[in-house]
């Protein structure tokens, strides 16, 4: 197993640690979630490095193509669900973002069944960055974090429409 794939697995392993620390901190501190944020940031950084290393050293694998986006979705969904449960994020935002992730995952599966790979778009990368920044800000209870999350929702919606439009030929039979 190569280093990028190990980083992807590490990101998935960090999710339960994030969940436990989140609920311990919410129960005991309630406002700023330092440990949870650190775990989330470390997990998010592994996302950057696994992709960077895979491309730079030509270590792209089928495992990585499948598991990297899955690990990203698990991490972001876990954080958003926790934030909704802690009343730091409206449920409708999480539902929209998670629904987009499911839709694009299905589109990628359809493409894969035809032997095609849907590469990440610039809109998808902006979506990921804004989501991560917004989640970190919400974890730290920064006052204007919700405005950043609104930007993340808009970027998420835009990138979803972009992926579907560009790959609409995959949806016709």
UniProtKB/TrEMBL annotation:
What biological function has been recorded for the protein in this entry?
Answer: This protein catalyzes the committed step to the synthesis of the acidic phospholipids.
Report what the protein is called: CDP-diacylglycerol--glycerol-3-phosphate 3-phosphatidyltransferase
* EC number(s) from the headed UniProt entry: 2.7.8.5
Supply the source organism for this entry. Answer: Peptoanaerobacter stomatis
Spans traversing the lipid bilayer: 6-26, 33-54, 74-98, 132-158
The record lists the catalysed reaction(s) as: a CDP-1,2-diacyl-sn-glycerol + sn-glycerol 3-phosphate = a 1,2-diacyl-sn-glycero-3-phospho-(1'-sn-glycero-3'-phosphate) + CMP + H(+)
Which branch of life, at top level? Answer: Bacteria
Q: What is its main location?
A: membrane
Look up and give the membrane topology term: Multi-pass membrane protein
Q: Which GO terms describe its cellular component?
A: plasma membrane
Example of a GO MF term: CDP-diacylglycerol-glycerol-3-phosphate 3-phosphatidyltransferase activity
Q: Which family does it belong to?
A: Belongs to the CDP-alcohol phosphatidyltransferase class-I family.
The answer on whether this UniProt entry bears the keyword S-adenosyl-L-methionine reads no
Gene Ontology biological process terms from the UniProt entry: phosphatidylglycerol biosynthetic process
Q: Which UniProt keywords apply?
A: Cell membrane, Lipid biosynthesis, Lipid metabolism, Membrane, Phospholipid biosynthesis, Phospholipid metabolism, Transferase, Transmembrane, Transmembrane helix
Pathway linked to the protein: Lipid metabolism; Phospholipid metabolism; phosphatidylglycerol biosynthesis; phosphatidylglycerol from CDP-diacylglycerol: step 1/2
Q: What class of enzyme is it?
A: transferase
Where does it reside? Cell membrane
């Amino acid at each position: 197993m190569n280093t990028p794939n190990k980083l992807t697995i590490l990101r998935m392993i960090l999710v339960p640690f994030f969940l436990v620390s989140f609920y311990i901190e919410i129960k005991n501190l309630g406002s700023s979630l330092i440990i949870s944020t650190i775990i989330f940031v470390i997990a998010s950084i592994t996302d950057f490095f696994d992709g960077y290393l895979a491309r730079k050293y030509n270590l792209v694998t089928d495992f990585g193509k499948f598991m990297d986006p899955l690990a990203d979705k698990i991490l972001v969904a876990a954080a958003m669900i926790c934030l909704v449960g802690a009343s730091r994020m409206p449920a409708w935002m999480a539902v929209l973002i998670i629904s987009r992730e499911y839709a694009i995952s299905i589109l990628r599966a359809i493409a894969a069944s035809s032997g095609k790979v849907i590469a990440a778009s610039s809109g998808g990368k902006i979506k990921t960055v804004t989501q991560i920044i917004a989640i970190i800000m919400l974890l730290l209870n920064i006052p204007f974090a919700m405005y950043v999350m609104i930007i993340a929702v808009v970027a998420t919606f835009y990138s979803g429409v972009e992926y579907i439009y560009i790959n609409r030929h995959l949806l016709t039979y």
